[in-house]
Amino acid sequence: MSEIDVRIADWQRDNAELRRIRETVFIAEQSVPPELEWDSDDADAVHFLAFEDGYAIGTARLLGDGHIGRVSVLRDWRGMNVGEALMRAVIAEAERRGLEEQRLSAQVHATAFYERLGFHVISEEFLEAGIPHVDMLRKSQ
Predict the structure, then answer these.
(1) Nearest residue to 73 via CA among 116, 33, 34, 107
(2) Structural domain includes residue 77
(3) How many structural domains are present in the chain?
(4) Most buried of 25, 98, 126, 140 (most Cβ within 10 A)?
(5) Which range of residues forms the domain containing residue 84?
(6) Cβ atoms within 10 Å of 9's Cβ, excluding its own
(7) CATH number of the domain bearing residue 33
(8) Which residues contact 13 (CB under 8 A, 6 or more apart)?
(9) 93 touches 62 (CB < 8 A)
(10) What is the predicted pLDDT for the residue at 141?
């Protein structure tokens, strides 16, 4: 595998790539209804794209309040540290913006992944789009 590059994306210019990844992961694979996947936060969020050899393979977004979401990696690249590279870029940008706390709603199966990045569970389990989630929080050092 080549090196993974992560960059801040532009919602307008990179829309096709952002949508391709999120539609594949959330709508096609996880059966999230499209009306739940696309929301008004996308227009104002800071979006991130992960690339391998110029091909977009993962995405995430950061909201102005420090909430991280829509973290997704295409199936063929899972388990190759793409998610970690994405999350480290998002956390670094959040801290650069002075957001000392980062929050996310994690799918329960991914809790250990986020814990390795410094997040801890702050809620009981709940269903979002029919998928078990927990809220998690990370405080900058």
Answers:
(1) 107
(2) yes
(3) 1
(4) 25
(5) 4-99
(6) 21
(7) 3.40.630.30
(8) none
(9) yes
(10) 75
Classify strands 101-107 and 120-121 as parallel, antiparallel or unpaired: unpaired
One-letter amino acid of 129: A
Assigned token pair, 136: 């998690």
Torsion of Cα atoms, 44 then 46 then 47 then 52, to 10°: 160
The per-residue pLDDT for 20 is 97
Instruction: Output the tens digit of pLDDT for each of the chain's 141 residues.
Output: 578 999 999 999 999 999 999 999 999 999 998 988 999 999 999 999 999 999 999 999 999 999 999 999 999 999 999 999 999 999 999 999 999 999 999 999 999 999 999 999 999 999 988 899 999 999 987
Length in residues, the chain? 141
Instruction: Quote the Cα angle for 81-36-48, to 5°.
Output: 35
Query: Does any domain span residue 132?
Result: no
The pTM is what? 0.94
